[in-house]
Amino acid sequence: MYPYAWQETTADNGHRIAFCGAVGNCAFFVQPTRVLTCERIIKLTINLTTYGLTNYFEDLAQATPELTLARIISQHRDLYQVVSEQGQQLAQVSGKLNYQLTDPTSYPAVGDWVLMTATSTTDQAVIDQVLPRQSLLARSAAGTGRQGQAIAANLTTIFICMALNGDFNVRRLERYLTMAWDSGATPVVVLTKVDLCPVLDAKMALLADSTMGVDVISCSAKTGAGFDAVNAYLLPGKTVAFIGSSGVGKSTLINHLLGTEALLTKTIREDDAKGRHATTARQLIVLPQGGLVIDTPGMRELQLLSGNFDQSFADVTALAKNCKFRDCQHQGEPGCAVQAAIATGELSADRLASYQKLQQELAYQGLTARERENAKIERLFGGKSAMKQVVKQVRQKNKRR
Ligand SMILES: Nc1nc2c(ncn2[C@@H]2O[C@H](COP(=O)(O)OP(=O)(O)OP(=O)(O)O)[C@@H](O)[C@H]2O)c(=O)[nH]1
Ligand SMILES: [Zn+2]
Q1: 107, pLDDT greater than 70
Q2: With 80 as the cut, is the pLDDT of residue 234 above it?
Q3: Does residue 145 belong to any structural domain of this protein?
Q4: Is the CB–ligand 1 distance for residue 268 below 6 Å?
Q5: Using a 6 Å cutoff on CB, does residue 212 contact ligand 1?
Q6: Residues that bind GTP, according to the entry (predicted)?
Q7: Ligand 1 centroid – CA 222 distance (Å)
Q8: Residue 221, ligand 1, Cβ within 6 A
Q9: What is the Cα–Cα distance from 253 to 159, expressed in whole angstroms?
Q10: 98, 132, 166 — which closes off a domain?
Q11: Residue 249 within a domain
Q12: DSSP string over 170-233
């Protein structure tokens, strides 16, 4: 049971009643400070707005009243923990849905609203439908043979965290922004550890082009600066996520939002001791102020699966519209407006290189390992026979030595 899920009200007999959203169907008669006895167990209804339910999903669910609306709050492989009005329970995708879902990113993810066949909360439920998502953060699942993997669904805001010390890297930020814009959620850049940065203005200037149109917050866990600005996004019913490299301070921020340092870290330690069971790992966290945070293990380091360059590289894509050739690669073709902008200093060469690198990375996505290897050979040598030629020449050169 998690303290954040406790709700209290006054019973007819004047006793305080406390109930726990995480359990859902237990009620204890308590005095203001301590539990006296569990006099009876009653069926409670969970208010799903606490879990971010909006009219959009409510309306979608009403079209199929025979199924139960639920939100995925954690996932362990094919097993999901869901919350419905009846409480929490485990669920699995139905055989029919499993057959229908051909794209791996269509499988339910934490944050998804699903429709399931109603069962007692002590039984495992069956997920029949994943409701259309308002946003989806997906990553490439390299080496798994899968094209991608859904990480978190229905996020309103994605906080891209980058520390202002050694972690600071504009090119990496551009990668995260490209991915975040593509998800359908709105990215917000959070620059952490501002207490360790004596040159904030200079660092902000380096980010200016890449963060055009994006809110940027600088914060410090040491001084508390900037935390209120992050908090302002956590309105009731909004679901957010924090992404960024390891050690930038994501957990520190989430702990702060939870309002208690111990809560998150303690839970993680408890889970570790038990071997991290799916039922205990909290991945969708209800904050006291009403917002929700999704923090899944897969969220921490993300590989690009798809990108939206029109927003993350709006300057480059706007310039490219004026290139003479529609398929201009901006690599020295005549009439290239992008190269012209670099020549005048309007665009930095580093930013174009970052754009091209991300585009190349994406072009590889969806290819098999062999296709990817061939694409690389094509790019580096202009084809297999040309590569063989180069290899032959190198061998001969080495022999002569
Ligand atoms: N100086 C300073 N240190 C910070 C700040 N925020 C976090 N830290 C420290 O940075 C370290 C890493 O912070 P975490 O919150 O665990 O980082 P994380 O991003 O959650 O890391 P992962 O869990 O590995 O993804 C801890 O020792 C924090 O105390 C900050 O604003 N200033
Ligand atoms: Zn061009």
Answers
A1: yes
A2: yes
A3: no
A4: no
A5: no
A6: 192-195, 244-252
A7: 10
A8: yes
A9: 11
A10: 132
A11: yes
A12: HHHHHHHHHHHHHHTSEEEEEEE-GGG-S-HHHHHHHHTTTTTTSEEEE--TTT-TTHHHHHTT
Do 232 and 94 share a structural domain? no
- Say yes or no: 34 and 86 in one domain: no
**Cβ neighbours of 173 (radius 10 Å):** 25
- Residues 363, 243 share a domain: no
Position in ligand 1 atom list of the atom nearest CA 242: 19
CA of 336 to the centre of ligand 2 (A): 4
Looking at residue 271, its pLDDT comes to 41
Atom index in ligand 1 nearest the CA of residue 244 equals 19
User: Coil, strand, or helix at residue 79?
Assistant: strand
Residues 245 and 231 in one domain: yes
Residues by chain with Cβ below 5 Å of ion ligand 2 = 323, 328, 330, 336, 338
Asked if residue 183 has pLDDT above 70, the reply is: yes
pLDDT for residue 33: 45
108 and 218 within one domain: no
Q: Which residues of 176-200 are buried (b: 16+ CB within 10 A; e: fewer)?
A: bbbbbbbbbbbbbbbbbbbeebeee
**Pair 199, 269 in one domain:** yes
ipTM given for this complex: 0.96
Condensed to tens digits (0 to 9), the pLDDT of residues 361-394 reads: 777 665 555 555 666 666 566 666 776 676 677 6
**Total domain count for the chain?**
4
| Pocket test residue of 251, 253, 293, 296 for ligand 1, highest count of atoms within 8 A of CB | 251
Full residue range of the structural domain in which residue 110 is found? 49-132
86 CA → ligand 1 middle, Å:
37
Instruction: Answer yes or no: do 171 and 283 share one domain.
Output: yes
Residues 257 and 289 in one domain: yes
